[in-house]
């Protein structure tokens, strides 16, 4: 079997290390890069090489940005009195899809996970406390939007206790969880039904 040229093989092997990319997909992508016009390939390689150098954390919410403040924090049209706390930037992007939310965010970059040696001091909880303390007159609500798993729930409870310890009058809310649109009750698990009942609304 004919092997790939060394340079192409190195690119393929690197791509194979990416999440969800297998050997065949990596090879196809490597050949796709080979067919790209030189200008496109040059632009792509420059973006990759400067990725870490240009990308940094927003000093306010810890979203990813290329300046001191991200575009969301700089946008005065957004409601800065509501802060949604998310685990990752990808979670933030989910909220931004479809313009369903007009508040601002705080990105934790993780969740409390003792089994993997991740404590409160390893994620951006302290910065959230300081942010609330410094802007308490402006902040009206904190939405805890950590994932509905054991670690996400523990993280939300920890943050809630920390805010309450500040004797703050800020409203603390948690995302509602329950049945997704189009779901059948017979396939729902116990916890999903429990959350659906607890979060029921007047009809």
Number of helices: 9
CATH architecture of the largest domain: 3-Layer(aba) Sandwich
Strand order of the largest sheet: 4-3-5-6
> What level of helicity do the residues show?
40-55%
N-to-C series of helices and strands? HHHHEEHEHEHEHEH
User: What gyration radius follows from the Cα positions, in whole Å?
Assistant: 22 Å
CATH level 3 topology of the largest domain: Dna Topoisomerase Vi A Subunit, Chain: A, domain 2
Give the quaternary arrangement of the chains.
single chain
The overall strand count is: 6
Number of domains in the coordinates?
Answer: 2
User: pLDDT average, as an integer?
Assistant: 91
Question: Which shape, going by the Cα principal axes?
Answer: globular
Uncertain parts: none
Write a brief caption for the model.
The protein is α/β, with parallel strands linked by helices and 203 residues long.
Can you characterise this structure?
The chain has two domains: 6-54, RecR Domain 1 (Helicase, Ruva Protein, domain 3, Orthogonal Bundle), CATH 1.10.8.420; 61-174, Dna Topoisomerase Vi A Subunit, Chain: A, domain 2 (3-Layer(aba) Sandwich). The longest helix is centred in the last third of the chain and has 16 residues, at 150-165. The protein is built from nine helices and six strands. The protein starts with 5 loop residues before the first helix and ends in a 5-residue tail after the last helix. With 203 residues, the protein is of the alpha/beta class. The radius of gyration is 22 Å and the shape is globular. The strands form two sheets. Strands 4-3-5-6 form a four-stranded parallel beta sheet. It has a two-stranded antiparallel sheet with strand order 1-2.
